[in-house]
Amino acid sequence: MELSAHFFLELAVILVACRVLTWLGKRALQPPVVCEMVAGVLLGPSLLGLLFPEFHAMIFPKATMPLIFAVSQVGLTLYMFVVGLEFRLDLLSKGWRGSAAVSIAGIAAPLALGALLGSRLMADPAYFGAGVKSWQAMIFTGAAMSITAFPMLARIIMERGLAGTRIGTLSLGAGAFDDAAAWTLLAIILAAFESNPLIAVLAVAGGAAYLLLIAFVVKPVAKSLVARHPQASLSPAGLRAVLIVLMIAAWYTDYIRLHAVFGAFLLGIVMPKGTFVDNLRDRIEPLTSGLLVPLFFAFSGLNTRLDLMAGQGLWMVALSILLIATLGKGVACGVAARLGGYPAAESVAVGTLMNARGLMELILLNIGLERGLITPTLFTMMVLMAVVTTLAASPVFELVRPYLATDEEAKRPSPAKAR
Amino acid sequence: MELSAHFFLELAVILVACRVLTWLGKRALQPPVVCEMVAGVLLGPSLLGLLFPEFHAMIFPKATMPLIFAVSQVGLTLYMFVVGLEFRLDLLSKGWRGSAAVSIAGIAAPLALGALLGSRLMADPAYFGAGVKSWQAMIFTGAAMSITAFPMLARIIMERGLAGTRIGTLSLGAGAFDDAAAWTLLAIILAAFESNPLIAVLAVAGGAAYLLLIAFVVKPVAKSLVARHPQASLSPAGLRAVLIVLMIAAWYTDYIRLHAVFGAFLLGIVMPKGTFVDNLRDRIEPLTSGLLVPLFFAFSGLNTRLDLMAGQGLWMVALSILLIATLGKGVACGVAARLGGYPAAESVAVGTLMNARGLMELILLNIGLERGLITPTLFTMMVLMAVVTTLAASPVFELVRPYLATDEEAKRPSPAKAR
Q1: Nearest-CA residue of chain B relative to A21?
Q2: How many angstroms separate the CA of residue B3 from the nearest CA in chain A?
Q3: Residues B38, B391: Cα–Cα separation, whole Å
Q4: Which of A8, A16, A73 is the closest to B260 by Cβ?
Q5: Best interface-test mutation with B: which of A247, A280, A295, A371 has the largest number of B CBs within 10 A?
Q6: Are the beta carbons of B241 and A19 separated by less than 8 Å?
Q7: Over 90: is that where the pLDDT of A411 sits?
Q8: Using the beta-carbon criterion (under 8 Å), do B290 and A418 form an inter-chain contact?
Q9: Closest Cα in chain B to A369
């Protein structure tokens, strides 16, 4: 009983912190998602726990961590489902030609540099969990470098009315391709990391089975069910049915040792577009973003321990990770765009947007931490990298924005969300 | 981590059970809310745990109970806030005379009969814990008899589209008053049982302070804030602000030993009606009813042990409790409504609705069991009473429904959900 009363207090503190940081961040041209990331870190042992250890221990006692984690996972699952709902495969294929160079640069360069980084970091046991093999460490850091904050990228592009422009299509296409590649790599490492080869087989075979099931059963069934009442508003029973499938998908992808976010995202993608998807999003998104997702930021922040970053050496490593990440992703994508014939300003904008890691990176890092792939030290360094690359995106984008091509599409009023 | 994956499975099982029972219950005129309550009981040790103990232990391990409880409390709080949003004080004050009579009958009669019952049951040590004084037993059974399934009452009223009608407002107003009185009594007994009078003082003074704060600070502030943009759609920042206040209110009312549902309900009541309230409801209600509230039903069912009811003597006592409960609450409220000038059909409807105990009763009983006030045997009898009075509500209500007054307000299209 006490736990439940306390949970309300934790929720209130987390939401207040997110609100204050969002309010402050607005003045620094930062979108809410970035501010909430930072709020989570500040609520953790890195600031609140450092300045007011007793207050911090009182608000966030260890006993409530499993609760925060479990609820944040439900929130994350719902969120990734909504991201899947909004995902537009058509944009991806439409921008394919222009995106190819940027896509390849955006996965090849960070993978190569990330792998190099991983192999160097393996020399010190402070960064990877016991039993992690060299190639797993290399692929994990490579994947971590390759991640783009795809939902955030999409939001920024929509909010700025760039959805149909050359730069918007280019970034969305390349971002989607690179994220899909990075997540696939992560799934492979997670499967391979299991000491029991049967579990790896379960992950790979189970993942393949899930893909087939989604593509050849769930998608057509959902389509035919929805086609019966194409314009009908989603009933509570309909919503309940979707939530049941979503919870089963989340449990299943967790059970086969992938992760609930994969199941949720893929399920979201195959939901029939139109009124149905709009209704689902309208019913699920507000409470998910408003109440549950901040718990995930807070959980990540509670695991981010800047106090572990003792000594100049560790800060140098963190700085190297930041530089390698920016070089491998942002600079590589920008250069690829420039070489592909895009104007300088557009190339900078594309590189900056691709470089932002955002929430996606936090998800990947948390999975790595909970599975014992990486240590809290490397986790903290990577979180710092994610926060800085994401913080940089919006101001840099605003700097080059006056020089971006303003074609007809760019002027179109956008269906922007504030978030 | 395992806990979180398992939580998805529990959610899926609970949602499926609710869906199946709702589908079956529809044929017995039972609204979803009752079906979901029964689904919870069937998922507990009373059926699933009895027939398939190993499967039951696998799906609902003890370790996940605090998680289910905490999340279900968040769901219940959000739900009660939505109920508050729908609540119309203007209709309550219009029907104040009738509501007052029903309120007083609904607390005085069950208290008197319950106290009588308590003093009789004290003769047998099988019902109350060691060290329980006679007057404590009497007040506890009295309070238990006085409880109305307030959230359930509200849900039935909303589902039937009666949220804004005279009968809906009468029942909601009287139910709220009686429940508040019963909970205050519970706080007093708990304080006396713990020999800590400070808890009672905290509950009474803290509750009064909360009422004043809501009425003279929160209400005018919310009104003036919303008045600036009366027709504007609620922004994510606006929703976030409301959720912050809601979480603080829930924590506070839990902290002063009342219950989060009262804080949430009262806060919902004072939200400025119009676009603002409509937007809040649309954003909060779907995911709350679709995903979170079923957890509350499941939690209550998991604590209900009908397997304890062995022997004819015990069943006779259980039957007496059921009769006394119905006489003291349902019949008394119906008579009070009739004497207050309501037509016979409406009086029967009000009595029936007030008689349903539902999950509020289970919360009170669980507290009594936890603190050692009552034994598992009396707990189970009271649960039976709660289930039967709740199951009876809807069919009896349907019987008199054709005879209900169809005045202007009753005919008005309601904002009810199809659910």
Answers
A1: B237
A2: 7
A3: 9
A4: A8
A5: A247
A6: yes
A7: no
A8: no
A9: B1
For B334, the token pair is 């119906």
What are the phi and psi torsion angles at B200 (to 5°)?
Answer: -65, -40
Q: What percent of chain B has pLDDT over 90?
A: 33
Which of B235, B260, B419 shows the shortest C-beta gap to A418? B235
Residue of chain B whose Cα is closest to the Cα of A11: B247
Q: Which of B71, B287, B289 should one mutate to test binding to chain A, selecting the residue with the greatest count of A CBs within 10 A?
A: B287
What gap in Å lies between CA B7 and CA A294, rounded to an integer?
Answer: 19
Helix axis angle, B358-370 to B134-146, nearest 10°:
160
The span from the CA of B30 to the CA of B20, in Å, is: 13
Three-state DSSP class for residue B45: coil
CA gap A298, A17 in Å, rounded: 10
Q: Which of B5, B19, B71 has its CB closest to that of A254? A: B5
Which of B417, B409, B400, B305 lies closest to B29 in space, CA to CA? B400
Q: What is the pLDDT of residues B107-149, one digit of tens each?
A: 999 999 999 999 999 998 889 988 888 888 998 999 999 988 7
What is the model's pLDDT at position B366? 75
Count Cβ atoms below 10 Å from residue A413 Cβ, excluding itself.
6
Contact A283 B287 (CB under 8 A): yes
* Interval A248-267 mean pLDDT: 88
H-type alpha helices, A95-235: 96-121, 134-146, 150-159, 166-193, 197-213, 219-228
Instruction: Please name the residue of chain A whose CA is at the shortest distance from the CA of residue B245.
Output: A12
Nearest CA in chain A to B281: A283
What 3-state class would DSSP assign to A270? coil
Q: Work out how many CB contacts closer than 8 A connect A with B.
A: 151
* Position A57 pLDDT exceeds 50: yes
Closest CA to A362 of A78, A149, A90: A149
Separation CA A208–CA B95 (nearest Å): 63
Which comes out higher in pLDDT, residue A183 or B381?
Answer: B381
pLDDT of A1 > 60? The answer is no
Give the class (CATH, top level) of A2-57+76-411: mainly alpha
Cα three-residue angle A145-A147-A149, rounded to 5 degrees? 135
Domain parsing of chain B, residue ranges: 71-411
Q: How far apart are CA B364 and CA B300, in angstroms?
A: 11
Q: Whose CA is closest to A229, among A276, A279, A288, A264?
A: A276
The angle, 0 to 180 degrees and rounded to 10, between the axes of the packed helices A65-86 and A2-26 is 50
* Fold of the CATH domain B71-411: Na+/H+ antiporter like fold (1.20.1530)
- From A324, A372, A393, select the one nearest A144 (Cα to Cα): A324
Q: What is the DSSP letter of A374?
A: B
Those residues with Cβ within 8 angstroms of residue A178's Cβ, 6 or more apart along the chain or in another chain: A103, A106, A107, A146, A147, A148, A354
Q: Which residues of A304-320 are buried (b: 16+ CB within 10 A; e: fewer)?
A: bbbebbeeeeeeebbee
Complex prediction ipTM? 0.84
**pLDDT at residue B15, rounded to an integer:** 96
Number of H helices, E strands in chain B: 22, 0
Complete DSSP assignment for B241-296: HHHHHHHHHHHHHHHTTS-HHHHHHHHHHTSPTTHHHHHHHHHHHHHIIIIIHHHH
Contacts of A73 in chain B (CB under 8 A): 4, 7-8
Q: How far is A232 from chain B (nearest CA, A)?
A: 13
Q: Of A151, A404, A346, which Cα lies nearest the Cα of A264? A: A151
Cβ contact, residue pair A67, B69, below 8 Å: no
Predicted model pTM: 0.84
